[in-house]
Design brief:
Blueprint: H1 16-33, H2 51-59, H3 71-83, H4 88-91, E1 96-98, E2 107-110, E3 113-117, E4 124-126, H5 129-140, E5 141-142, E6 145-146, H6 148-159, H7 168-184, H8 194-209, H9 213-217
Organism: Bacillus yapensis
Pfam families: APH (PF01636)
GO molecular function, one term: amino acid kinase activity
Length: 220
């Protein structure tokens, strides 16, 4: 493997300048990936299940957990959010080639500047805005706190390179939640790794705030 300068940062710790730089490079990556060199697939990688299927999935856990289990609270957050979800939010997303794993473990910084994006193993034809949501949640969300200034800096940087309409960020969060929530809200996951805790906290926060995301970030 070729040596690349730079270092990883912890989730939720990226400053405004770092997020701006990450936004610019993400926009550049999307421009290059979608310049016509890569032929578009017929369908995006993420084919979302119906809301009914997703509700059945969540409710199936009630058969395997105790009513006093701490997981019940996380589960009920996801069920409530799913009941109010519309798949039209995903079908309205623009398709294109995307990294699909753009979080802090796969990006390197030298000071305030992004030096490299790593690990394109999951690169596929999907929804590029998933990269936007994944990068922002990874860089700007810490514990239970969302750093709006860092998130806005990413979007500002992205828009210097690639067009991004207002409202897309909010929509990207809905799509990210529907894609990833089943990966990280699971009673069988070990919470010994900080990465798992981070992802689970992100999905819990998104689930709690899902009905308000458009009001909170729709003008961004």
């Amino acid at each position: 493997m070729e040596h690349v300068d730079g270092k990883n940062l912890l989730p939720g710790t990226l400053n405004v300048k770092q997020m701006y730089s990450l936004g610019q490079m993400t926009g550049h990556m999307h421009n290059v990936a979608n310049d016509g060199t890569n032929k578009n697939d017929r369908n995006p990688k993420f084919i979302p299940p119906s809301v009914e299927q997703r509700l059945d999935y969540w409710k199936s856990f009630y058969k395997t957990i105790d009513e006093n289990d701490m997981f019940v609270e996380l589960l009920e957050i996801q069920i409530k959010a799913t009941k109010h979800f519309s798949l039209e939010l995903i079908s309205s997303c623009e398709t294109g080639w995307a990294h699909r794993d753009l979080w802090v473990d796969n990006i390197l910084f030298t000071g305030d500047q992004l030096s490299s994006i790593l690990d394109f193993d999951r690169f596929a034809f999907d929804y590029p805005e998933l990269d936007i949501a994944r990068a922002i949640m990874s860089g700007a969300f810490n514990g239970s706190t969302f750093n709006s200034n860092s998130a806005k800096a990413f979007l500002d940087g992205y828009r210097t390179i690639r067009k991004l309409e207002k409202g897309v960020f909010a929509r990207s969060l809905y799509a990210l939640w529907y894609l990833e929530s089943t990966w990280w809200i699971n009673p069988n996951l070990s919470l010994d790794r900080y990465q798992v805790v981070q992802f689970q906290n992100e999905m819990t926060w998104l689930g709690k705030n899902l009905s308000e995301l458009r009001a909170m970030y729709g003008s961004w």
